[in-house]
Fold this sequence. Notes:
heterodimer, A: 148 residues, mainly alpha, elongated
Amino acid sequence: MGCVYFNSIGLYLDNELAINERDNLEAHIQKCSECASEIRLLKLAGEAMRKNMILGVDSESFLAGLRNKIMQEDKINQNNEAVINDFGKWSKRFIPLPFVLAAACWMLLMVSVNNHNPVEEYIFGKNLSDISTLIDQSESNLGWTFIN
Amino acid sequence: MDQDDELILSFNGGNQEAFDMLVKKYHSRAINIAYSLLSNLADAQDAAQDAFLNIYRKLKDFRRDSSFSTWLYRIVVNSSYDLMRKRKVKNVPLDDVLLELIPAAEDKSDYLKKETVQAALSGLPFEYRSAIILREMEGLSYEEIAKVLNINIGTVESRIFRARQMLKAVFLKKGVF
Lengths: 148, 177
């Protein structure tokens, strides 16, 4: 449709036009049968949608269903809280605090040394030769020879 | 302070009945919006209840930046969208094949038939559908719709325009006008 007012018809029906725009459109409708027809069709479409509404929904049954949902959700939340609390109690009972603190300190140390793992180095790295030196010294001091 | 604000204050003060009164006041509107969006009454009731459940949990934090109804509509639209995704309902575009499935009108009063309107509405993209429903069924202004859907007024305008053109095309094709 080529009419310049065509796109404004919906705005007119929805009271979204400024007063002067509305007056111009109303004057135009008197002369333009296509715009008048468009207004009629859009009004009918709106009426059809409004007639599609459901009437008389029982509020009591809706409320009962809603209360049931609230109760169910509360129960789930309570169960979740209980699981979290149970784990808290269990961890307090079976994992002593000093152990947790020691583990935390060790983890911190691992992170802070930044690619310098003392355990790995002690077992496989230069500290391994320190152990050999220590054994050699012990042998000479004691006059014994450990079996290789 | 309007009646809704008084009810919200009363509920936040511990009066459970105030919440029930809010539900009774708005449940029909919530179900109707959800029904128009989902095309299924059981799903509509479910989505509306989910919306009120959400409100029940968040009413203490409601800051009154907008009216209660605007907030409610937003939550209902979101609940309906979530339920649609959960049910994996895909929006089927209104192509010619789908148009064949919509029953043709037997007489001019047939445009009032729920099935015809519902089938036509369900063929619209969700974002067009929500905008046109809030306008035609709830009578919201473009500014209010923009707040509910969290979009700008220009987008509301174009969505409503496109929705109307698509619905008009279906109704014309089905001979209901």
